Known about the structure:
Elements: H1 2-13, H2 15-29, H3 33-49, H4 53-73, H5 115-129, H6 140-158, H7 162-177, H8 181-193, H9 197-215, H10 222-237, E1 247-249, E2 254-260, H11 264-269, H12 272-284, E3 288-294, H13 298-308, E4 314-326, E5 331-342, H14 350-358, E6 365-373, E7 377-382, E8 385-390, E9 411-420, E10 425-429, E11 449-457, E12 461-465, E13 471-475, H15 489-492, E14 496-505, E15 510-514, H16 523-529, E16 535-543, E17 547-552, E18 556-561, H17 562-566, H18 575-578, E19 584-593, E20 598-603, H19 604-608
Parallel strand pairs: 2-3
Antiparallel strand pairs: 1-2, 3-5, 4-5, 6-7, 6-9, 7-8, 9-10, 11-12, 11-14, 12-13, 14-15, 16-17, 16-19, 17-18, 19-20
Helix pairs in contact: 3-4, 4-5, 5-6, 6-7, 6-8, 8-10
Amino acid sequence: xxxxxxxxxxxxxxxxxxxxxxxxxxxxxxxxxxxxxxxxxxxxxxxxxxxxxxxxxxxxxxxxxxxxxxxxxxxxxxxxxxxxxxxxxxxxxxxxxxxxxxxxxxxxxxxxxxxxxxxxxxxxxxxxxxxxxxxxxxxxxxxxxxxxxxxxxxxxxxxxxxxxxxxxxxxxxxxxxxxxxxxxxxxxxxxxxxxxxxxxxxxxxxxxxxxxxxxxxxxxxxxxxxxxxxxxxxxxxxxxxxxxxxxxxxxxxxxxxxxxxxxxxxxxxxxxxxxxxxxxxxxxxxxxxxxxxxxxxxxxxxxxxxxxxxxxxxxxxxxxxxxxxxxxxxxxxxxxxxxxxxxxxxxxxxxxxxxxxxxxxxxxxxxxxxxxxxxxxxxxxxxxxxxxxxxxxxxxxxxxxxxxxxxxxxxxxxxxxxxxxxxxxxxxxxxxxxxxxxxxxxxxxxxxxxxxxxxxxxxxxxxxxxxxxxxxxxxxxxxxxxxxxxxxxxxxxxxxxxxxxxxxxxxxxxxxxxxxxxxxxxxxxxxxxxxxxxxxxxxxxxxxxxxxxxxxxxxxxxxxxxxxxxxxxxxxxxxxxxxxxxxxxxxxxxxxxxxxxxxxxxxxxxxxxx
Length: 610
């Protein structure tokens, strides 16, 4: 502190020239400080005289948003482009800013606390600057969960006063819009607590989005993304010394992880075992290899990185340090993460020679022995060459794990699907073209009604089995027009249901069916019968921290948001405790959402008190 005071004293004694020189030096070193300086200069005028309100708000919001993206998001993603936000006020529809590429329109509030403005600006910017290319290829709920997790990071950095603002204006409305969001949001927060949400999960999504955009692939990748998330959650949940799968192979993700922690083996055997693991991952075809060091292993981490940088088959894309939770002590810790990516054109040339010598060709069948089986893939020996088969290639029908079809040390007839000599990669399949269900004469067309047996279910859809092994996907949103209380899984599974085909895509070999489209959509009539202000008597069916779901006359259901409950008086402040199932409530319709098929309600007493 004494040294700092001496420096400040010298700057002051040097006069205006010294001050200006120091100011220029700081701005050259970091141009973003200009907005921060502008904010500090405007602060007293804003606080005491309410002068320069808009300039103060724009400087505060743009600096906070840009700093957050630069330090906690884009700065941790090697494949993300740098971004800087500038905010200007627009007073006319003819303003050139409204017609300029890269301009976004948002509403800012002239308040003392800028938390909501900062969060709002960031929320609008995130879909354009983070994983922008992949968002159209996954369910909207995943995109929203990603943004809410990033906004939570921002709210945490703004201070405790920002958390209630985040909860009320961002998290609660998001959950109300997507009832399936809480569990996914919880999983992403777990990744973030573990330090791998941004530098690993978002990094891979960003890389995948760029690849799909370049290749013109527009197919939905939700299932692959959720499988990848499941793989990363295993690392986040891992206990000390617990053995978990550290490689993830699918058509979209080829990722390997090397974990470093203080251990007797590290001290006893040095770098050799870890270099061998990296070599194995390169040969297996990992496109991304993450070396992750826990606290205490930083020196070993540096030694390993120096050695790996000499391997011309891979290149170091980034090296970052992130905060994470320490399970052993429950205190914040740090984790070092390095990303190595395969250099395809420098891969082992001997692999191509081995393929030619083995006379292995794409499309041909070969007998192979299963060496190892995991849930997502299996390692197979084909004429002395390691090959891989993914879960999706184990059968023409959907399987939950590779082990449902393949057993270790057993031999099967595999067909070679793809040979990549650059990546030393041989992909197999058990799908015999002669038994392709897509070539069946019974393949249904769009608009055709058929009977299917529902055999599987996940959080997004049901799987229906038709003749000749033809599978039909029935999204959960297509089960019933009542999205608040759809049929239960145990009622539908293993039953035969009548459906209508509403989508058929040859490229992805995808058929989608619907149960609800066999009947007329009742919501236009509901919208007419329940105009705003309609008074009803409701019965409580479900109480959550974010809303109360009630049964309405005519077999309908509606939602009373958290804000409507807490505005209703003292006894409703703790509505999760005081409101019980079966309780009657007098409600008023505030809006019927046709697209979301949802009825939003308010308590009648709230309107009477206005």
